[in-house]
Amino acid sequence: MASISLRKVVKRYGTGPKANQVIHGVDAEIADGEFIVIVGPSGCGKSTLLRMVAGLEEISGGEIAIGPRVVNQVEPADRDIAMVFQNYALYPHMSVFDNMAYGLKIKKVPVDEIKARVDKAAKILELSQLLDRKPRALSGGQRQRVAMGRAIVRNPQVFLFDEPLSNLDAKLRAQTRLEIQKLHRELGVTSLFVTHDQVEAMTLAQRMIVMNGGRMEQIGTPEEVYARPASTFVAGFIGSPPMNLLKGRAEGTMFHVGGISLPLPAAAPRDGELILGLRPEHLDHWNASQGWPLTVEMIEMLGAERLVYGRLGSELFTLRIDATHVPPTVGETLMLELSAKHLHWFDAQSTQRV
Amino acid sequence: MIERRPALTLLSHLVLILGVLIVAFPLYITFVASTHTAQEIVQAPMPMTPGSHLLENYRDALLGSATGGNSKAPVGRMMWVSLMCALGIAIGKIAISLLSAFAIVYFRFPFKSFFFWAIFVTLMLPVEVRIGPTYQVVSDLKMLNSYAGLTIPLIASATATFLFRQFFMTVPDELVEAARIDGAGPMRFFKDVLLPLSSTSIAALFVIQFIYGWNQYLWPLLVTTEENMYPVVIGIKRMIAGGDAANEWNIVMATAMLAMIPPALVVILMQKWFVKGLVDAEK
């Protein structure tokens, strides 16, 4: 097991003035045994970052260390890592056993030890009955487990997961998520897990890295990221439905937005152009006698809760209410009451938290 | 046709049977002719049922013990030469094109696109087009009347390279990456992953190239002048004298039948693989 250090990691495709930089200096220290989820929208560079740790992409700048050793020039096979691919990348002509044993065979591990290690991994993953099958005779979930088994038998310092759940159906995904968590608890191997799904990120991560446009927006525990998003991007990306973001002008305890003025429970951190963030679930009352006037435009029933879409002045606003309440009617104006602790403030230009 | 009408079924069967007859009838005549004596064949009308000289005709052909006037090279030897050439061409082509496709798809090297296009251009230059200069080269290298001379110029071709290139490009990149993480070097990856995955394509290509090699006519005609290096296709040609000389058609036909057997066998035995290789590549 080992820690991972990313120091000013840069990735560029091409050289010279035409070079296309996709990762702009990422810094992160990942502790031994930690489960880190890298999350972001497609094209944010999260997979590229993971592949640089794996050694499948060259590092254009900065350095990556696994344990005490800088691995910039080390071949993937010598980095002591194991990777689970999105499409699993199982060798189609080999049986499950051979798929799991291939890396060990190349390392010239003795035959009976290979057998012992594969059997052990197969037992953990409940694959023992399937060892003779070819990948094409397996279901998606089973293939996924074989891919994890191939990673486990190597006994690596680091596990790398590249969106391993995105080819599974919703139910299996939830189940596999739990299995991965359990596996991590048992094996305690440092893990990097890339996903675009914020639910996966929130549920699996001990700490998560939110990426956008090749930059790290925030690193922290899921609680921190949810409670104190570092930028409007993180605020909009984490949480479903996303945080309401209102761009307006603060003036003492008043906030001017969408053609109306809203009273604030406490003064804004400063006057001027600001973005106010408020999560749909963070309202004290939505049917108070006074407060922010929300005109209801649409209501969605989700089972345990309802999503109410409406407008504050001309600005869109989403509200989440318990399904046990009597729902508002479309066209009605609700009065929203809120407390200061739930307000998030971001700079209008830099979009960073203030 | 998915339509179920008896008249249409009848018609389509008629067309198919007619087609089979057109293809099969000459074969049948060849067979019948190979079972008669030379005198019986030249009578008009030619007999349409098998005669009684099957065994001796085939023995004469194989051993070259016929009594006629033309080339009497034993067909047994010719078949051997043909077999060696066909195998040499098929295996040589597959080996070379597998490796060159591997290089082109998986490696970055200087002038890669130049080499790619150099190979591509050879597609436009089959043996027939470059036959003069190729003959000069082979002759200067003293490869006339040798297996090398018969096979090497035919091995160099780009078709198979392209087939494998196309196939390799469909192999997912993740497989390469998984192999890299597993610690497999390039040749190990080639041997353990690419070769087994291309096995059906290799089989299909083997069938095609074997028949191509077996049926070569123009090139062996140029580079062989000695009887013991004749492939069987050339052998047939040499048995037929021009002008008014009497040909031993029974022996010629027996040789033709013999010449048909190995390619037919290859196709029949490898049919399953052949079709699989052309239709679906296991990925």
Automatic annotation (TrEMBL), chain A:
Example of a GO biological process term: glycerophosphodiester transmembrane transport
CDD domains from the UniProt entry: ABC_MalK_N (cd03301)
Lineage: Bacteria, Pseudomonadati, Pseudomonadota, Betaproteobacteria, Burkholderiales
NCBIfam families given in the database record: PRK11650.1
InterPro entries membership: AAA+_ATPase (IPR003593), ABC_transporter-like_ATP-bd (IPR003439), ABC_transporter-like_CS (IPR017871), ABC_transpr_MalK-like (IPR015855), ABC_transpr_MalK/UgpC-like (IPR047641), Mo/tungstate-bd_C_term_dom (IPR008995), NA-bd_OB-fold (IPR012340), OB_MalK-like (IPR040582)
Organism (species): Paucibacter sediminis
Listed SUPFAM superfamilies: MOP-like, P-loop containing nucleoside triphosphate hydrolases
GO cellular component, one term: ATP-binding cassette (ABC) transporter complex, substrate-binding subunit-containing
UniProt protein name: Sn-glycerol-3-phosphate import ATP-binding protein UgpC
UniProtKB/TrEMBL annotation, chain B:
Keywords: Cell inner membrane, Cell membrane, Membrane, Transmembrane, Transmembrane helix, Transport
Bilayer topology: Multi-pass membrane protein
TM stretches of this protein: 7-29, 80-107, 114-132, 144-164, 193-212, 249-270
Family named by the database record: Belongs to the binding-protein-dependent transport system permease family.
GO biological process: transmembrane transport
Subcellular location: Cell inner membrane; Cell membrane
Primary localisation category: membrane
Domain of life per record: Bacteria
Subunit structure, as described in the record: The complex is composed of two ATP-binding proteins (UgpC), two transmembrane proteins (UgpA and UgpE) and a solute-binding protein (UgpB).
Key word Lipid biosynthesis present: no
ABC transmembrane type-1 domain mapped to chain residues: 79-270
Cited function: Part of the ABC transporter complex UgpBAEC involved in sn-glycerol-3-phosphate (G3P) import. Probably responsible for the translocation of the substrate across the membrane.
One Pfam family per UniProt: BPD_transp_1
PROSITE patterns noted in UniProt: ABC_TM1
Cited InterPro entries: MetI-like, MetI-like_sf
Protein name listed in UniProt: sn-glycerol-3-phosphate transport system permease protein UgpE
Gene Ontology CC: plasma membrane
